Amino acid sequence: DAGVTQSPTHLIKTRGQQVTLRCSPKSGHDTVSWYQQALGQGPQFIFQYYEEEERQRGNFPDRFSGHQFPNYSSELNVNALLLGDSALYLCATGLGPGNTIYFGEGSWLTVV
Amino acid sequence: RKEVEQDPGPFNVPEGATVAFNCTYSNSASQSFFWYRQDCRKEPKLLMSVYSSGNEDGRFTAQLNRASQYISLLIRDSKLSDSATYLCVVPNAGNNRKLIWGLGTSLAVNP
Known about the structure:
The structure holds 2 protein chains of 2 kinds. Chain A is mainly beta. Chain A is built from no helices and 11 strands. In chain A, the strands form 2 sheets. In chain A, strands 2, 4, 5, 6, 9, 10 and 11 form a 7-stranded mixed beta sheet that branches. Chain A has a 4-stranded antiparallel beta sheet with strand order 1-3-8-7, with no helix packed on it. In chain A, a hairpin with a 6-residue loop joins β4 and β5 (44-50). Chain B is mostly beta strands. In chain B, the strands form 2 sheets. In chain B, strands 2, 4, 5, 9, 10 and 11 form a 6-stranded mixed beta sheet that branches. Chain B has a 5-stranded antiparallel beta sheet with strand order 1-3-8-7-6, with no helix packed on it. In chain B, a hairpin with a 2-residue loop joins β6 and β7 (60-65). In chain B, 33% of the residues are buried.
């Protein structure tokens, strides 16, 4: 039984570019939350997807967008990358909107 | 008052010591709580869930004090491998239950 999987694990982008990160939930999970974690900080909530819709959102600009597919997997897209977007992006999944507590290994994004 | 607040540490303890971390939360309606462990440059891993007064799993004990709005994590007989950052997490009350994270407490267990 695969846990939460994320891809890619590491990537480097240039300022102004766009990036797409992917998350496959643990088997049986239907809800996906995305977090951004800067070094030395706790994870910051970006948004949550349930039933293919964004259900709630944290304090992130519209440059951050997402999608959930019928198989419950999800993508996080970030446009017009800034240096400050460099962070670990974590995906957490669960069954139902209140239970996204299981994390993938994350995607390390470096913007140069 | 911050939604979730932890002592950042670092806590430096010898092997075999007992160490306790506290976490305070502001929303009195919160019903469940989590402790996560995070190693350097790794994802948070769920350590313990607390839904009532407390929970115990081997050397780890979590206790909840609703009146004072704090959760504690006690680690007995510390091992070198316990060195990590411990994050306190409190879901928002209500249907969305967005996770609210503390900044974490750093623990270093020394030989």
